[in-house]
Amino acid sequence: MLSWQWPWAALAGVLIAAAIILLFVAFSRRVKPADEAVFSLDDDLNTEHASRLFRQWRVLGRLAVALLVIALVLAIALVARPSQVDSSDERASSRDIVLCLDVSGSTLPYDREVIDTYLELVKHFEGERIGMSIFNSTSRTVFPLTDDYELVTEQLTAASKALKGVQTQDDIDKMSDAQYQKIADWLEGTQNRKDATSLIGDGVVSCAAMLPGFAYGAANETNAKRQRAASIVLATDNIVSGQETYSLTEALDLTEQTMITVDGLYSGPKTSESDQTTADMKSAIEAHGGVFLTQSDGASVNELVRDIQSRRDTESDNQSKASMTDAPGLWVLALAVILIIWIACTWRLRR
Asked: What is the CA radius of gyration of the chain?
């Protein structure tokens, strides 16, 4: 729908144009002095050829005047800023998502499947900032929060290829030294504590620390008000070995206080999905407002994506509002065409 952002400018333009035209008409009608010589072309136009040229000149002159009037109208219309309502929704996503991956020995054979799941998640994101952290006894940031999905896809694809050789024990036995070194390089920094693996609570806290507004020992609503809406996608089998600084429940308490949503993906053998550790993880995640899904659920990716989408409660106020955008395109084109025709007419009149 066409509208005008500066209608008052159009009115001002009309008044100015009218004043100029009136002044031109007034000066053109001034009476010439009586002693001024007057020349007549009547005798020169008596021939048929001259009459035809004169009629052509008059037509071109009137056309040039008409074109100038049209150009003036178009210019006034452009001054008024023709606009149209863009009915498409505007999104200014304000959500940060951290992919939090357990890379301990008990989950490593299943991590590639989880990473492929992350690759599916990325395809559904538009505008979110995404980061990834992997943890065992300690954590390592694979890539910080970013909206460069090409970089995210590149990193996840590289990790998926690196972990291709650890799906089964036979695959591990057949690994070359180069493949083993590639995996070791990717896991560098995740096993800096001795006699401890899969410290899940500590891993969750490290992932939460990647999000603005979260601080160790200072997770509260004051911090939460300063941060964007945040989600953590946690993939683990919830099998802890060693002394944790934070248990999973304590870590979830901290994230809940800062309004960080933690969703869980079970990364372990399907035969262990009914174990008590899995049930405990499911209860802890759901008790803190998250959703818990297993890899055996064929619709898990779509379900998790839909749930994350529904949690976007901090998008900008203009999400469902239509916007007013300038639409000068056709008006400028019409003005350009009119001016080109007018220039051609004036050039022909001068000949």
From this structure: 37
Q: Which amino acid is at 130?
A: I
The pTM (predicted TM-score) of the whole model is 0.61
The gap from C-alpha 72 to its chain's centroid, in whole angstroms, comes to 40
- Does the domain made of 95-315 have the CATH classification 3.30.200.20? no
Cα separation values, 181 from 151, 176, 178, 189, 190, Å = 23, 9, 5, 14, 15
Read off the tokens for 171: 């695959």
Both structure tokens of 152 = 């995210």
Q: Cα–chain-centroid distance for residue 214? A: 24
Q: What is the pLDDT of residues 114-170, one digit of tens each?
A: 788 778 878 877 778 889 999 999 999 999 999 898 999 999 998 888 887 776 667
Six-digit token pair at 150? 């090409």
Contacts (Cβ under 8 Å, ≥6 apart) of 227:
96, 211, 212, 213, 214, 258, 259
292 — phi, psi (to 5°)?
-115, 130
Domain boundaries, given as residue ranges, for the chain = 2-28+46-86+325-350, 95-315
Distances (CA, A) of 76 to 62, 71, 331: 21, 9, 10
Residue 33 DSSP one-character state: P
User: Which secondary-structure segment (H or E) carries 307?
Assistant: helix 300-310
- Residue-wise pLDDT tens digits, 295-306: 665 544 455 555
